[in-house]
């Protein structure tokens, strides 16, 4: 049971390049999330997917797109990378029941630098 | 008032001491509360959930005060390995939304030998 996995672990991009961050979970969770973490800013929600087939914007969605490919996989795409998107990106998943809130489990993160 | 507020620290504490930190939250409708631990350059990991009656897990005790809207974490007999950033986490609403949890910015704890 691998939990939440993310690829790649590290990436350096030039301004204007595009890339997709991959995330997969094997815990049969229905909800998945993408966060970014910057020094002094804490974790900020970019996008989330409550269930397969749905996605919604979080606090900081500009410059990103997501795809919930199936129940296991949730990808984050940067179409035209900017230096302001230099950050650590975490994917997370959890069970969402609509009534109870369960804890989230995080992947190991992707460290992205945009030059 | 920010959604979840924590003292960023750092708290410098000698090994073996007891340390406590609080977190305040703004949404009175929040129902679920957690403490996460994050080591340097690693992902956050669940330390413990926080229940209304308070709960203990070994050297760690969590308390919830709904009237004053704060939760606390107490660490007894601190170890060098307790050095980390502790994130206070609160659900965004009364549980009906899927948009997850609100994370505090964390309290940095350094245990000194």
| Structural class by helix and strand composition of chain A | mainly beta
The fraction of residues assigned to DSSP E strands of chain A is: over 45%
The residue ranges of chain B in which pLDDT falls below 50 over 5 or more consecutive positions are none
**Main beta sheet of chain A:** 7 strands, mixed
> What radius of gyration of chain A results from the CA coordinates?
13 Å
Beta-strand residue fraction of chain B: over 45%
Separation, N- and C-terminal Cα atoms of chain A: 36 Å
Apparent shape of chain B: globular
Number of helices of chain B: 0
Let me know the number of strands of chain B.
11
Helix fraction of chain B? under 10%
Q: What oligomeric state is this?
A: heterodimer
Which percent bin holds the helix content of chain A? Answer: under 10%
How would you characterize the overall build of this protein?
Chain A is an all-beta fold. Chain A has no helices and eleven strands. Chain A has strands at 4-7, 10-13, 19-25, 31-38, 42-49, 56-57, 64-68, 74-78, 87-94, 105-106, 110-114. With 113 residues, chain B is mostly beta strands. Chain B is 0% helix and 51% strand. Chain B has no helices and eleven strands. Chain B has strands at 4-6, 11-14, 19-25, 33-38, 45-50, 55-57, 60-65, 70-75, 84-91, 101-103, 107-112. In chain B, strands 2, 4, 5, 9, 10 and 11 form a six-stranded mixed beta sheet that branches. Chain B has a five-stranded antiparallel beta sheet with strand order 1-3-8-7-6, with no helix packed on it. In chain B, a hairpin with a 2-residue loop joins β6 and β7. Chain B is globular. Chain B starts with a strand and ends with a strand. Classes of the chains: A mainly beta (115), B mainly beta (113).
